[in-house]
């Protein structure tokens, strides 16, 4: 286990060290000490390394992640793993607003609650939240899956494209063009796979599926006069 | 001690307002952004009286950590009880040497004057506050009123939090609770009067991260009802609005609840009263906020970073306040 300490090293040095690991590195296990809510910890990683952050982080932890596995032993500020490409980010605590925003791939697991705008504009990332999520989550979500084991706040999936949403608890309200959809066997299988990958033992049969009614984003000839 | 969530308001999401334009684009999103409006807020409400001598030092550390959220001006409100049957008036001057030189002799009543850099704390008999304020207005038109009340003192100036804290010896101040703000200006000029906290009523103060869009109309409405503000600043209007509501009989919780309907825009507010400490976020809740509570204190930070050096923070209950929900604690 290699250790990096933000008490004695600059954030820039810590991130540069992690970013410099080659794909074939034999130093695959890293630990970051004393994060103290700092911004942009473990951003832009692009090799298959395993990083544990020992404490709470600020904005944009794990941003743009590719291949790396990042575990935060605490809570994260706004924009955790924003625009993630691949890899896995696990948050042991809570996540602030716009967790996983614009993510293209990989898996984000939040073991506590996530606040507003979780998965906003997601483009292929999978997000599993063990707790609840706040309002305006999955706004304009394009692809990927958002799994919520608790409750969802207002305006879930507003203006959603083709992302799939699975919620076990209540949904305060659905956003424009978001509807409940049938849970077919292939959805159940996909959900079971995501829950397993997210270290979650929730029963897939207890979830409901939501997605796009596809009435908002397709051009409709009846509306031609409005353009 | 009243603790925890005061009451919750239904989350009706206004249409149109949204500030995440950096990550979301598209014709369906009607933008109403005022740019990268940041500002940093910190607050500390002490339950444990033994911590009171540390209030200024803890608040200063918290606010300095937030410096990069707002480099324009900084301010701190500290609540510490005045002597029995006395009240405090905090005034500020652009020419303190001249303005404060003979200040003590200029009043008809017994006034104790403590000059601290550009500010002076006037300690006056509680029944003479109005008289002294009138005399200040007539004899010293250059002085600006920062605050008045039985406990509140406000120190604010243009500059970074560290320089403001150093100028006014904030780390040395003791008190029961305090609120700090570092400003990135959007809605009015970078001046001392445009700095936060704003105080528009006895022992009341408000700090704000965000921007209000209906403050001009609200300022005119308040003026018609007899409540005047000193500046063009949006936050001062919000402070005056709450003061106005409380003068009409609302308690702070009710005034904040009414604000959810009447104040349009983005806001995370932290509010102080003589015995209380409140937090309110708008229904969209773009502006960040973190609360922490232990047996010894309640702490607020725009970011968790601001709280990391507080005693016992590792075991504190830390959470993000809900949108459109009033939180209020009082002694």
Provide the descriptors you would attach to this structure in a database record.
heterodimer, A: 227 residues, mainly beta, 11-stranded mixed beta sheet, 2 helices, 10% helix, 22% strand, B: 331 residues, alpha+beta, Glutamine Phosphoribosylpyrophosphate, subunit 1, domain 1, Alpha-Beta Plaits, 2 domains, 7-stranded antiparallel beta sheet, 5-stranded antiparallel beta sheet, 7 helices, 16 strands, 21% helix
Task: Walk me through this protein's architecture.
- The complex is a heterodimer of chains A (227) and B (331).
- Chain A is mainly β.
- Chain A has a domain at 94-216.
- Chain A is built from 2 helices and 11 strands, in the order βαβββββββββαβ.
- The longest helix of chain A is centred in the last third of the chain and has 13 residues, at 185-197.
- Chain A is elongated, with a radius of gyration of 18 Å.
- Chain B has 2 domains: 5-80 and 176-330, Glutamine Phosphoribosylpyrophosphate, subunit 1, domain 1; 82-150, ACT domain (Alpha-Beta Plaits).
- In chain B, the strands form 3 sheets. Chain B has a 7-stranded antiparallel beta sheet, covered by helices on one side.
- Chain B is of the alpha+beta class and 331 residues long.
- In chain B, helix 5 runs parallel beside helix 6 (234-247) and helix 6 crosses helix 7.
- Classes of the chains: A mainly beta (227), B alpha+beta (331).
- The A-B interface holds A 36-38, 56, 58-59, 75, 77-78, 82, 94, 96-98, 101-102, 115-117, 120-121, 134-136, 139-140, 153-155, 159, 172, 216 and B 11, 13, 20, 23-24, 26, 28-29, 283-286, 288, 290, 303-308, 318-320, 323.
């Amino acid at each position: 286990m290699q250790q990096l300490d933000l008490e004695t090293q600059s954030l820039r040095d810590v991130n540069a060290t992690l970013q410099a690991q080659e794909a074939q590195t034999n130093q695959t296990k890293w630990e970051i000490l004393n994060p103290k809510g700092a911004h942009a910890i473990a951003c832009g990683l692009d090799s298959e390394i395993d990083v544990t952050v020992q404490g709470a982080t600020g904005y944009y932890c794990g941003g743009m992640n590719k291949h790396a596995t990042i575990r935060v032993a605490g809570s994260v500020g706004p924009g955790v793993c924003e625009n993630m490409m691949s890899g896995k980010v696990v948050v042991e605590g809570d996540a602030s607003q716009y967790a996983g925003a614009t993510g293209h791939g990989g898996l984000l697991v939040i073991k506590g609650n996530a606040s507003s705008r979780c998965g906003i504009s997601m483009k292929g990332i999978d997000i599993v939240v063990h707790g609840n999520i706040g309002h305006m989550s999955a706004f304009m979500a394009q692809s990927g899956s958002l799994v919520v084991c608790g409750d969802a706040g207002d305006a879930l999936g507003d203006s959603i494209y083709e992302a799939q949403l699975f919620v076990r608890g209540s949904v305060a309200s659905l956003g424009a063009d978001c509807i409940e959809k049938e849970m077919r066997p292939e959805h159940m299988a996909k959900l079971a796979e995501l829950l397993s990958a997210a270290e979650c033992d929730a029963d897939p049969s207890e979830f409901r599926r939501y997605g796009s009614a596809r009435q908002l984003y397709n051009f409709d000839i009846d509306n031609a006069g409005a353009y | 001690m009243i603790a925890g969530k005061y009451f919750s308001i239904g989350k009706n999401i206004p249409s149109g307002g949204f500030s995440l334009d950096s990550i979301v684009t598209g014709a369906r999103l009607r933008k109403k952004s005022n740019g990268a409006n940041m500002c940093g807020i910190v607050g500390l409400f002490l339950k444990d009286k033994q911590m009171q001598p540390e209030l200024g030092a803890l608040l200063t550390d918290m606010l300095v950590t937030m410096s990069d959220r707002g480099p324009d001006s900084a301010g701190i409100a500290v609540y510490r009880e005045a002597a029995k049957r006395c009240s405090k008036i905090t005034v500020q001057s652009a020419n303190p040497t001249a303005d404060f030189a003979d200040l003590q002799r200029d009043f008809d009543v017994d006034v104790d004057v403590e000059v601290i850099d550009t500010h002076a704390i006037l300690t006056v008999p509680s029944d003479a506050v109005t008289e002294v304020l009138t005399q200040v207005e007539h004899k010293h038109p250059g002085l600006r009123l920062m605050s008045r009340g039985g406990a509140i003192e406000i120190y604010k100036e243009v500059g970074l939090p560290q320089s403001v804290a150093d100028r006014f010896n904030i780390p040395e101040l003791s008190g029961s609770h305090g609120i700090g703000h570092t400003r990135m200006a959007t809605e009015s000029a970078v001046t001392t009067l445009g700095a936060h906290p704003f105080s528009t009523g006895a022992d009341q103060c408000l700090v704000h991260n965000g921007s209000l869009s209906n403050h001009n109309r609200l300022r005119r409405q308040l003026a018609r009802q007899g409540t005047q503000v000193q500046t063009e600043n949006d936050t001062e209007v919000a402070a005056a609005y709450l003061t106005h509501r409380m003068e009409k009989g609302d308690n702070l919780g009710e005034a904040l609840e009414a604000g959810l309907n009447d104040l349009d825009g983005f806001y995370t507010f932290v509010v102080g009263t003589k015995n209380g400490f409140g937090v309110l976020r708008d229904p969209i809740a773009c502006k960040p906020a973190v609360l922490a509570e232990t047996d010894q204190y309640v702490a607020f930070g725009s970011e968790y970073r601001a709280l990391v050096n507080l005693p016992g923070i590792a075991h504190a209950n830390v959470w993000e306040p809900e949108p459109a929900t009033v939180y209020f604690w009082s002694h």
